[in-house]
Amino acid sequence: MDRRTFLLRTLTLATTAWLARHTPMALAADMGSGAATRDLLGRQFPDLSGGSHRLGDWRGKPMLVNFWATWCAPCVKEMPALDALSKLHPQAQFVGIGVDTADNMRKFAAKVPVSYPLLVAGPGAIDLMRGMGNGPGGLPFTVLLDKDGAISHKVLGTVKEDEVSAWLKSLGA
User: Fold this and answer.
1) Backbone Cα Rg of the chain
2) Residue 79's pLDDT is what?
3) CA 139, CA 129: separation in Å to the nearest integer?
């Protein structure tokens, strides 16, 4: 990716993140995103320790996937709430996918640790998000998958803890 494309994508993400902060919205759960979900579950992502994880390995229980970045203020703001929810719902797998560099994410995690895995996707995650119904590619973007890997709920913008908790309970977590 050339520098101009990177800067345009970064500006787009920053703008949509700001908009999402002020207008969070639940997105329709289906929207023909089956192929994108299969792609997400089939991909390997590096973690902050140098290991690698395939999201599909966590299939069999509900999974909350949160796309975020260290430079996204609403993303940073919601991380402690997501961490608390992950502890409240141990039957669900929580995963943070960083639209950022591993270096930035490691520095961030040293200051704001979370108990769930943080995986690195970089700017390539934007296409994944768009495939799952996040047209603008904004952050934060949260997808809740059922135990079979089908999308149950999606939220563009900061999540509401009580809603996510209710959704997780409805999925048996």
Assistant:
1) 15
2) 96
3) 9
